[in-house]
Amino acid sequence: MDELFQSAVLPKPTETRPLLGLTVLAVEDSRFACEALRLLCLRSGARIRRADCLTSARRHLKVYRPSVLIVDVGLPDGSGIDLIAEAAASSPRIAVILGSSGDDTQASAAVLAGADGFLAKPVVSLAEFQETVLSHLPDTRQPKGPRRLPHDVVQPDQIAFQDDMLHLSSVLSDLGNLSLVDYAARFAAGVALTADDEALLDAAKAVSSEVERAPASVATSSAVHDFADLVAMRIDRQMAI
């Protein structure tokens, strides 16, 4: 489908739904973070699909081409940077490719790999989300006339947060696997930013520091066990509610 015909059949963006007609593929392993993206897309008029790992994302991209690709840098089966590079080199190219992470130092790596921009977690501001996507779209996909920026901030469902804690608990069942512990810490940091959970964020950062400082003793470190206990407390608290 050529660009002229595609722009003719897609719904036209409006002031309140500036992303109307667009499809977003969110490559995000956190259900909580993806729930925030789903709400942002819903409020903006875009449709969303989710892939929770590189393997799933590549399967999606073989079947259809989204308008917008949002890729979390830290994924369970590899780096999202690799997927960004693949998508940027593909033809025809996806209109907007964005990297995302709770670690904003990953922004330069994402852009160097071919991303058009970067969304630093937490991604909960409707205005920031819309402006980041719109700034990389052609004029034909922009809403007409002046547009007031919304001040809304989305609040994902706590059930999705509980799902992420259960996932973390499963990953942390093998504390002897350094790569899994490292992944768990990075995953938890992203979730904690979206949930505004400072205690969880501090615990995740402590584990990441331990992985860098003394990888051989991570399995027995107090930081890792405190981290696992904190995750268990989050699960117990939610079950009690």
Task: List the topology elements.
Blueprint: H1 3-9, E1 23-27, H2 31-44, E2 47-51, H3 54-63, E3 68-72, E4 74-75, E5 78-79, H4 80-89, E6 96-101, H5 107-113, E7 117-120, H6 126-134, H7 158-171, H8 178-195, H9 198-213, H10 222-240
Helix pairs in contact: 2-7, 7-8, 7-10, 8-9, 9-10
Walk me through this protein's architecture.
This protein has helices at 3-9, 31-44, 54-63, 80-89, 107-113, 126-134, 158-171, 178-195, 198-213, 222-240; strands at 23-27, 47-51, 68-72, 74-75, 78-79, 96-101, 117-120. The protein is α/β, with parallel strands linked by helices and 241 residues long. It folds into two domains: 3-141, Rossmann fold (3-Layer(aba) Sandwich); 158-240. The strands form two sheets. A five-stranded parallel beta sheet has the order 2-1-3-6-7, with helices on both faces. A two-stranded antiparallel sheet has the order 4-5. The radius of gyration is 19 Å and the shape is globular.
Q: In a nutshell, what does this entry contain?
A:
With 241 residues, the chain is of the alpha/beta class. The chain has helices spanning 3-9, 31-44, 54-63, 80-89, 107-113, 126-134, 158-171, 178-195, 198-213, 222-240; strands spanning 23-27, 47-51, 68-72, 74-75, 78-79, 96-101, 117-120.
Main β-sheet, in a few words?
5 strands, parallel
Structural class estimated from helices and strands: alpha/beta
What is the top-level CATH class of the largest domain?
Alpha Beta
Strand order of the largest sheet: 2-1-3-6-7
Strand content: 5-15%
Specify the CATH architecture of the largest domain.
3-Layer(aba) Sandwich
Per the principal axes of the C-alpha atoms, what is the gross shape? globular
CATH superfamily of the largest domain: Response regulator
Question: What proportion of the residues is helical, as a percent range?
Answer: 40-55%
Domain module tally: 2
Radius of gyration: 19 Å
| Pattern of helices and strands | HEHEHEEEHEHEHHHHH
Q: Could you list the spans in which at least 5 consecutive residues all have pLDDT below 50?
A: 1-7
Modified residues (4-aspartylphosphate): 72
Keywords: Phosphoprotein
Organism: Pseudaestuariivita atlantica
Protein name: Response regulator
